[in-house]
From TrEMBL:
The keyword Nuclease applies. This is Restriction endonuclease. GO terms for biological process: DNA restriction-modification system. Keywords: Endonuclease, Hydrolase, Membrane, Nuclease, Transmembrane, Transmembrane helix.
Length: 222
């Protein structure tokens, strides 16, 4: 039977950072070694007759044909090791039956990847990379939205944190705020969020997303 594709949000959240194939590092290492070796041989005759530029180029190629492929090989091996480690972690996460346990084991980066991938299904796309540390600027159609994830491990969300999120959104010309918090969100904070038009992604919603992800994974053929 065909192998199941890694297509659930949970799997994508764990594996999304490995966008470059590990074997590409090895291929680049081979090309660099061959290219720099050819340059060194080409510059050698001129270097022997005292051409300063050729000597410098020859020296650079000799050193580069060792260091650059070695660095690429190390990067490829490290990436392969990370892929195996992430796959084992993913298998361990998927063996957990409770979404609450899954949520506790997710790292901050995995949590943000999961949220970003889920928001993509709603039409949100990243505008630029991270701003102000953990914030991420998203856009849907003509609306810019600031995704705030720094409070996801906070035990309690305070109304003042919402106001500061709105201030940061104003500084980057974002029309709305999506704020993530895995802790308790009391009535004052929820009222402040409604008043300021802030969308809250709370623990319950994240658990729902994880449950849906695992249900989808369970239905896919192996």
């Amino acid at each position: 039977m065909p192998r199941r594709q890694s297509s659930t949000p949970l799997e994508q959240a764990v594996l999304v950072r490995h966008l470059v194939p590990w074997w590409l590092y090895l291929l680049l290492a081979a090309f660099c070694w061959l290219g720099l070796r050819a340059i060194a041989q080409w510059a050698l005759p001129s270097s022997r007759i005292g051409d300063g530029s050729a000597t410098l180029l020859h020296s650079f190629a000799l050193v580069g044909q060792v260091l650059l492929p070695l660095a690429l090989l190390c990067a490829g091996v490290a990436d392969l090791f990370n892929r195996v480690s992430w796959r084992r972690r993913l298998d361990r996460l998927r063996q957990e039956r409770a979404a609450d346990s899954l949520l506790e084991q997710l790292s901050w980066q995995e949590m943000r990847d999961l949220i970003e991938l889920t928001l993509e299904t709603e039409g949100y796309e990243p505008v630029i990379g991270s701003i102000s540390g953990s914030d991420l600027l998203l856009q849907r159609q003509e609306q810019k939205v600031l995704l705030v994830t720094e409070h996801w491990r906070d035990p309690v969300l305070e109304p003042g944190q919402l106001e500061r999120a709105v201030d940061r959104a104003d500084r980057v010309d974002a029309e709305a705020v999506i704020l993530v918090c895995g802790g308790r969100i009391g009535t004052p904070a929820r009222a402040a969020a409604r008043r300021r038009g802030i969308r809250l992604i709370d623990r319950g919603l994240m658990l729902q997303w994880l449950s849906q992800s695992e249900t989808t994974a369970g239905r896919q053929p192996d």
